[in-house]
Amino acid sequence: MSAIQATDLTRVFGEGPAAVTAVRDATLSVDRGEVLLLLGPSGSGKTTLVSMLGGLLRPSRGTVAIAGRRLDTTAPGAARFRLHTMGFVFQTFNLLPALTAVENVAMPLRLRGMRRREATSRAAALLDELRMAGRLEAKPRVLSGGERQRVSLARALVGEPQVLLADEPTASLDTATGRDAMRLIAARSRSGGQACVVVTHDTRLIEFADRILHIEDGRVLAT
Amino acid sequence: MEGSSSGGGPAARDETWRGRAATALFVAWRNLTSERRRWGISAAALGIAACLVFFLEGVSAWITNSSTAYVDHSGATLIVAEKGIDDLLFAQSSFSPATLQSVRAIPGVASASAVVTVNGLLPINGSHLPVYIVGSDAGETGGPWRVSSGSPDVVRDRIVIDRGLATIAGVRVGDPMTLFAHRLVVSGISDGTDAAGDFFVFVSLPVAQAIAGQGDAVSYGLVRTAAAADVQGVARAVDAIGGVHALRASELAANDRAAIVDSFDQPLQIIVLVALVVGVLIAAIVLYTATVEHTRDFAVMKAIGSSSGVMYGSAIAQCVVLSLCGLVLGLAVAVGLGAIFGTWYPVLQSELSPVLVVVVAAVILVANLCAALLPVRQLRRVDPQEVFKA
Question: What CATH number labels A32-57+75-222?
Fold first, then answer.
């Protein structure tokens, strides 16, 4: 069974003559430990697709299943399901500015109800693995782009999710830092057994992928 | 869609609930402490509104309590007044001393003391202070009930004045004082003897009659009934005398209180309401703008799987912390203001009892919590897809 199974995913924005189909009949699957690169230009529907895969956007048509369980964004337990099964890495990192690096990473665990001390300890251990041991108490504003992305990655992985979704994870980083971040995402996903979907327009990231899909005008095309 | 595997028995669920509550408080605290200046200014603004509410409610309590101070301490069971006069502080009662002799003759009357009262404005240091002159016979009821310095005796030209009046006029025991062209000597200073800023001046009966300018007429009769007397029967007998009627002391006090509340307390309560509304608006604006400014942070929280309860709890916790800071600040300033006025300019005083503090604090807190509904409503609308915007 695939960790992610999307079938005939379609998303239409607006109605009538003004309706725009951002994603059309997208079908894809990702296995545990696999890194899928979803490559496409700006406006091709990448972010809409990853939003639907992450349960943040309801498809107009089609279904998404995570480890065999169908996603329903309107179900009462949708947020809780996301918390326990998914990790997100964003282009602009999206760290909470009021929290330190270790507090940001510990947040998903604390949202699950884990005690502060235990959550902080696990977050610190993961940041240590990502070479961030000296920056645990730093606020996001004093971290470099690469450091912020590593904190963002740690936050996505700390709960050991089944799925890792990364939206343009290297777009805000310089080439070397971006490659370093992508190498880390791919390596951690494989070792952790996460099904990883990386959405990007950067063709230089191809070398890190196990499989590549192109998306153009909302249609997913196999390579 | 099924939930995750984080559930378990009741203990596990309880731990999860506590953990989430702790997380909401943690996020609230971090948000507050990361923007100290902003929240400090907001707490100060809420503090000013709370201070106004506390102080004015204290003034209201003082006005209400002090309005009946004289009647409460007179020791009278019944008060005889000119027919048609139902209060002490606002109306001018007048009747013949012979009438009071008739009252004394009624079976069941233990004593009936004559008092003469005059309401006036006393020119002091370039301004005018309201005074309530009470004339009574030495040894009879109706004189000062709490003298903090000097002598309580008001005989001949000796007078006892309220501490507030003495403070503002700069008068001490033994000093001369001119009261409506009558040169008198201050023999004592009394405490708590004012009615909502109307300072009591206790004089001898002849002096009060001279100031009133109505010959030997008296204003009120303070009647004490015998222990076993039928008070209602005595009152009916007084009513039958003609020209006067008897009111129970409690009835007259209620009339005075109602008159004071109508005159002063209602406008005061309107100002209190305005201050309360201002406080709620401040809380609402502060919390709403903070929520709007942090929309992306809340979108991140939603995207990574935060429950609505944690986010709403965080917003409400911020509101509670902010309100409590404002309350403490406001209460401290209100108590300070009350002490300053009470010591240096007792025309206005604030009586904040612990019960009143708790009630006012609860009202402010509930009002501010209502203000938190606005940001909570905003949080419901936050779209987690914000996280994908560059």
Answer: 3.40.50.300
Give the whole-angstrom CA distance, residue B105 versus residue B341.
Answer: 47
Q: Does A212 touch chain B (CB under 8 A)?
A: no
What are B's interface residues with A at a Cβ cutoff of 8 A? 1-6, 15-20, 22-23, 26-27, 30-31, 33-35, 296-297, 300-308, 310, 384-385, 387-390
- Closest chain A residue to B24 measured between Cα atoms? A111
pTM: 0.75
Are β-strands A195-200 and A35-39 bridged in parallel, bridged antiparallel, or unpaired?
parallel
A58 inside 8 A of chain B by CB: no
The CA dihedral of B131, B132, B133, B139, to the nearest 10 degrees, is -130
**C-alpha dist (Å) from residue B364 to A13, B38, B43, B274, B328:** 45, 21, 13, 12, 12
Tens-place pLDDT, residues B143-195: 999 999 999 989 999 999 999 999 989 999 999 999 999 999 999 999 989 88
pLDDT digits (tens, 9 = 90+) for B327-353: 999 999 999 999 999 888 888 889 899
Q: Cβ contacts (< 8 Å) between A172 and chain B: which residues?
A: 390
